[in-house]
C-alpha cells in the first residue's frame, strides 16, 4: 500500500468570504482570505463539531416476509446498462477461481429476510440492476475479496455497498463494523438515509460522521465515542475520530469509498483516505475494501489497483460507453453572460414545473452568487448551494430541493457527484467544468458526474451546455472526443422553438 502522508489540508476557503443574507444569497465581505486552492472541492470538509447527528435504525423485528408474493415486473425494461447482465458495457475481471453467478433476483443473494423486506417494502425495488446483479455476488461471497467497481451514473451503486455493509454486521457486536467514506456531507447524509431505509428491519445501528455547524461550536463539549455498527462520513471527521480513539476500527469488516476515484485522487482526498485505510488494515488485514465510482481515469485506476489486496475483483466501463443514452446533451452558443441568463429565464424557467427539477452548475461561489442574484432580481425563485454556506443552510437547501419545495437549484460542484434526486430532469452547465490548474482543459470526470444528476435509474433527461468563448467551444469538442459523443447544437439561444424541439427530443415536453 502506498504511504499515507500526514494530514491533508481540507479544500475550500474562497478568495473572498461570503456572508449569507437570506437563504442561498451570498454577498462578498471585505475580509482578506486564503486563496481558493481547489476547484472541485468547493465543500468545506471537516471541522469536527459536537452534537453531530446520531441516529440508529429502529429495532423492529420482522414477522414474516412473503417473498413469493412480491412479483417482478419484467415489462419495465429500461436501459441495457441497468437491465442486461449479459450486455458487454460493464466488464468484469474476477480474480482467482472463486465462481460468481450474477443474481437475477434479490433472493439469489441469500440476504436475510429483514434485508429483503427493506428492499421490497421500503425501497420498492423489484429486482437488481445490472451492477447489483454482477457486483453483489462478488461482495457477499467469502472470502470477501476487495472490489473496484465502475458503473454508470444512476445505476444503483449505493445499493451494492449498502447491502455489502448491512450483510456483514454481527448483531451481537455493538461497535463499528462497517465504514463508508464519502467526499461531502451531503453524500454522507444521503447514503446514511438509504442505509437506514434499506436496513429498517435489521436493527442495525448507524451514524453519520460529518462536520457540524460552527454555530454550535463548543470544543469543550466533545463528541461522544461511536457505538453505531455502521458509520458513514467524510474523511477528515472520520480520521479525527479515529485518532481521538472515538471510532473503534478493531472490528471493521467492510471499508467503502463512494466516489472512490475522487477519494483516492491526489487532488482529492488521497492522504486522508490512505491513512484511514492503512490504519484499518494494520489491525484488520481481512477487512474488505469496496471502491465505487462512475469514473476511474487511467491514473487513478492504476493507483487504486495497487492499494487494494492482491486478488481483487474489478468491474469497469469504457469511457466511450459511460454516457447515458437516456440523457440528451446539447450545447448552446451564448455570446455573453447576459444572454446566458436570458436563455435560462426565457427558455427554461418560463416553462415552469412541467420540466421537473433543474440543477444549474457553476464553477465558483462568485458565479453562483451572481446568477442567483440576477434570477431573483428578475422575480424567479431559485436556491443556491456551495461550500461557503453554513452546514445548517446547506442541509436546509438540499432538504427543500429533495422535498420538491424548490424547483431550480444553482450549485457548485459540491453536488456534482452522487446527489440522487429522481425528479431532476434537466442539468444546465452555466459554466463548463474545467480543471482548476489548467482551465483550458475540460474536467471530464466532473462533466460526466454533473450530467449524471439527470436521468437517474434510466429516467429521461436533458443537459444544456452554455458555450460563450472560443475556449468553451474547444472544451466541448474535447468532451465529445473523450466520451465519443456528438453533443448537438441548439441553433439559437434566442429561439423558443429550438429549445422546445430539444426538450421534446429528450422526451421532457
Ligand atoms: P449511483 O450508481 O449513481 O450511485 P444510486 O445508487 O444513487 O446510483 O441509485 C440511483 C437511483 O436508482 C436511486 O434513486 C435508487 O433508489 C434507484 N435504484 C437503485 N437500485 C434500484 C433497483 N434495483 N430498482 C429500482 N430502483 C433502484
Ligand atoms: Mg452514487
Structural write-up:
This protein is an alpha/beta fold and 509 residues long. The chain has 2 domains: 62-70 and 87-320, P-loop containing nucleotide triphosphate hydrolases (Rossmann fold), CATH 3.40.50.300; 327-505, P-loop containing nucleotide triphosphate hydrolases (Rossmann fold, 3-Layer(aba) Sandwich), CATH 3.40.50. The protein has 15 helices and 18 strands. The chain has helices spanning 80-83, 113-122, 130-140, 157-167, 185-198, 235-243, 260-263, 270-283, 298-307, 337-348, 365-377, 391-402, 444-451, 470-483, 496-505, and strands spanning 16-20, 26-32, 54-56, 91-93, 147-150, 178-181, 205-209, 230-233, 254-258, 288-293, 313-316, 327-333, 357-361, 383-385, 408-411, 424-429, 461-467, 488-490. It has a 9-stranded mixed sheet with strand order 3-7-8-6-9-10-5-11-4, sandwiched between helices. Helix 13 (444-451) links the parallel strand 16 and strand 17 (461-467). Helix 6 crosses helix 8. The longest helix has 14 residues, at 185-198. The model is unreliable at 1-78 (pLDDT under 50). Bound molecules: adenosine-5'-diphosphate and magnesium ion (MG). The site of magnesium ion (MG) has 4 residues, from helix 4.
Amino acid at each position: 500500500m502506498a504511504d499515507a502522508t500526514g494530514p491533508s489540508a481540507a479544500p475550500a476557503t474562497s478568495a473572498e468570504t461570503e456572508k449569507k443574507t437570506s437563504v442561498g444569497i451570498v454577498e462578498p465581505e471585505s475580509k482578506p482570505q486564503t486563496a481558493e486552492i481547489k476547484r472541485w472541492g468547493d465543500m468545506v470538509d471537516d471541522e469536527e463539531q459536537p452534537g453531530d447527528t446520531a441516529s440508529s435504525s429502529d429495532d423492529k423485528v420482522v414477522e414474516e416476509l412473503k417473498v413469493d408474493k412480491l412479483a417482478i415486473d419484467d415489462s419495465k425494461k429500461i436501459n441495457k446498462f441497468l437491465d442486461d447482465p449479459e450486455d458487454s458495457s460493464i466488464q468484469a475481471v474476477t480474480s482467482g477461481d472463486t465462481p460468481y453467478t450474477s443474481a437475477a433476483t434479490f433472493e439469489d443473494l441469500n440476504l436475510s429476510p429483514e434485508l429483503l423486506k427493506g428492499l421490497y417494502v421500503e425501497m420498492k425495488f423489484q429486482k437488481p440492476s445490472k451492477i447489483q446483479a454482477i457486483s453483489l455476488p462478488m461482495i457477499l461471497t467469502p472470502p470477501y475479496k476487495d472490489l473496484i467497481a465502475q458503473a454508470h451514473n444512476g445505476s444503483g451503486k449505493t445499493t451494492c455497498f449498502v447491502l455489502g455493509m448491512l450483510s456483514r454486521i454481527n448483531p451481537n457486536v455493538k461497535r463499528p463494523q462497517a465504514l463508508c467514506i464519502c467526499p461531502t456531507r451531503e453524500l454522507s447524509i444521503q447514503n446514511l438515509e438509504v442505509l437506514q431505509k434499506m436496513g429498517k428491519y435489521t436493527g442495525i445501528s448507524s451514524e453519520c460522521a460529518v462536520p457540524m455547524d460552527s454555530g454550535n461550536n463548543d470544543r469543550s463539549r466533545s463528541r461522544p465515542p461511536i457505538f453505531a455498527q455502521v458509520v458513514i462520513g467524510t474523511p477528515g471527521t472520520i480520521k479525527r475520530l479515529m485518532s481521538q480513539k472515538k471510532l473503534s476500527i478493531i472490528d471493521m469488516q467492510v471499508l467503502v469509498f463512494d466516489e472512490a476515484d475522487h477519494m483516492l485522487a491526489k487532488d482529492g482526498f488521497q492522504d486522508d483516505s490512505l491513512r484511514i485505510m492503512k490504519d484499518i488494515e494494520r489491525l484488520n488485514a481481512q477487512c474488505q475494501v469496496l471502491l465505487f465510482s462512475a469514473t476511474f481515469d487511467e491514473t487513478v485506476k492504476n493507483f487504486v489497483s495497487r492499494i487494494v489486496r492482491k486478488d481483487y475483483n474489478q468491474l469497469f466501463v469504457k469511457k466511450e460507453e459511460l454516457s447515458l443514452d437516456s440523457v440528451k446533451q446539447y450545447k448552446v452558443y451564448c455570446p455573453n453572460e447576459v444572454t446566458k441568463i436570458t436563455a435560462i429565464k426565457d427558455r427554461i424557467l418560463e416553462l415552469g414545473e412541467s420540466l421537473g427539477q433543474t440543477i444549474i452548475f457553476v464553477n465558483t461561489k462568485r458565479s453562483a452568487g451572481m446568477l442567483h442574484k440576477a434570477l431573483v432580481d428578475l422575480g424567479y425563485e431559485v436556491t443556491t448551494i456551495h461550500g461557503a454556506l453554513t452546514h445548517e443552510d446547506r442541509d436546509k437547501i438540499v432538504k427543500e430541493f429533495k422535498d420538491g419545495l424548490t424547483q431550480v437549484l444553482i450549485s457548485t460542484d459540491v453536488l456534482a457527484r452522487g446527489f440522487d434526486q429522481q425528479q431532476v430532469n434537466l442539468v444546465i452547465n452555466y459554466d463548463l467544468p474545467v480543471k482548476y490548474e489548467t482551465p483550458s482543459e475540460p474536467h471530464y470526470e466532473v462533466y460526466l458526474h454533473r450530467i449524471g444528476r439527470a436521468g437517474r435509474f434510466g429516467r429521461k433527461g436533458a443537459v444544456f451546455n452554455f458555450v460563450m468563448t472560443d475556449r468553451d467551444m474547444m472544451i466541448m469538442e474535447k468532451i465529445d472526443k473523450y466520451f465519443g459523443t456528438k453533443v448537438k447544437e441548439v441553433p439559437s439561444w434566442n429561439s423558443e422553438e429550438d429549445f422546445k424541439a430539444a426538450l421534446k427530443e429528450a422526451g421532457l415536453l
